[in-house]
TrEMBL record:
One Pfam entry name: RMMBL
UniProt domain Zn-dependent metallo-hydrolase RNA specificity: residue ranges: 268-302
Top-level division of the source organism's lineage: Bacteria
Hydrolase as UniProt keyword: yes
GO molecular function: exonuclease activity; RNA endonuclease activity
Keywords: Exonuclease, Hydrolase, Nuclease
InterPro entries: MBL, RibonucZ/Hydroxyglut_hydro, RMMBL
Record field: transmembrane: none
Protein name: RNA procession exonuclease-like protein
Coiled coil location: none
Length: 315
């Protein structure tokens, strides 16, 4: 029997009282399971933390220091018990080390997706799809009007441009994926990375399986030689360069609002779109879907009379 309050949203994060743990807690708690290293999911200061090796590596890069006694490194596919709940981490395909969290309690399987994507990405582990009774899914782009285009067609928009390109992107995950895509599909382009992105590229090289070809940005390299450079910069830097000359500007994202006033639209997202969400639900075969991180109204309407869909309960 499905427990309606198995996982609830609290001020601290998503809480499972049957296991006595939180998932992706934003405030310090006694026990926290971390799906991946992005700042809206991973925080420091918890008494006990469970995450993948890559997630902890990225957190150490961000926070500088993590109490090793508080960390429990979890390998994909290995099960462990917290309280009365059996837990397993599975690849989510969102970024390197990102995990879905599969929880079993009294014979019912609850699958928390965290952020995830189905598109191929050689810089991270491909998503693993399993069946569950309750799917607790992100709904960032859960809208029938949103369909992410083919990433190969998008990256090829940067081909044959007679100018250097300043490419805005998120520092962790997106920048590394873009570098790999440019290396593969635009080998004539040289990748330069911002100094905040550089150490994360180094971690990807250490922990991942796909080599990345790039150099650390310097102004001289950008100005000299052929105009074949693509300079990857974080969002704040990108926004501060709004008056930059002699470069084309693009920002890689699934959000339409981030494409405005740029020279090139570049819809490359690390989240599922509407079609991906429906496909994923079909494969997981849940009897209930609980939505988080977004708006589940379109999904509820689409599956009305077929499948129970609701927002996760707040406590």
């Amino acid at each position: 029997m499905i427990v309606d309050d198995f996982l609830v949203k609290t001020e601290e994060g998503y809480y499972c009282r049957y296991g006595g743990f939180y998932i992706d807690a934003m405030l310090p708690v006694a026990c926290n399971l971390i799906s991946h290293a992005h700042g809206d999911h991973a925080t420091n200061g918890h008494r006990l933390m469970y995450a993948t090796e890559a997630t902890f590596a990225f957190m150490r890069n961000k926070f500088g220091k993590i109490n090793d006694e508080s960390t429990q490194v979890i390998a994909f596919g290995n099960s462990f018990t917290i309280g009365d709940v059996l837990v397993m981490f599975l690849p989510a395909g969102h970024m390197l080390g990102s995990a879905q969290i599969l929880m079993s309690y009294q014979g019912i399987r609850y699958l928390y997706t965290g952020d995830y994507k189905l598109q191929l990405d050689p810089t991270c582990e491909p998503i693993e799809i399993v069946q569950a009774d309750v799917l607790i899914t992100e709904s960032t782009f859960a809208n029938p009007s949103i369909k992410h285009p083919d990433f190969k067609e998008e990256i090829l928009k940067l081909k044959n441009k007679p100018s250097n390109i300043m490419l805005g992107c998120y520092t962790l995950g997106k920048a590394q994926r873009l570098t790999a895509l440019i290396n593969q599909y635009l080998p004539e382009r040289e990748v330069l990375v911002h100094h905040k992105i550089y150490p994360i590229h180094k971690l990807y090289e250490k922990l991942g399986s796909t080599p990345l070809k790039y150099v650390l940005y310097n102004r001289k390299a950008m100005k000299e030689g052929a105009p074949n450079k693509i300079y990857l910069v974080p969002p704040l830097t990108f926004n501060s360069y709004f008056k930059a000359k002699n470069v084309l500007k693009a920002f890689a994202s699934g959000w339409e609002r981030l494409q405005r006033q740029n020279d090139i639209e570049l819809y490359i997202s690390d989240h599922i779109d509407w079609d991906d969400l429906l496909f994923f639900i079909e494969k997981v075969q849940p009897t209930q879907v609980w939505t988080i991180h977004g708006d589940g109204r379109h999904l509820r309407e689409h599956l009305r009379g077929k499948l129970l869909v609701r927002d996760i309960y707040k406590h």
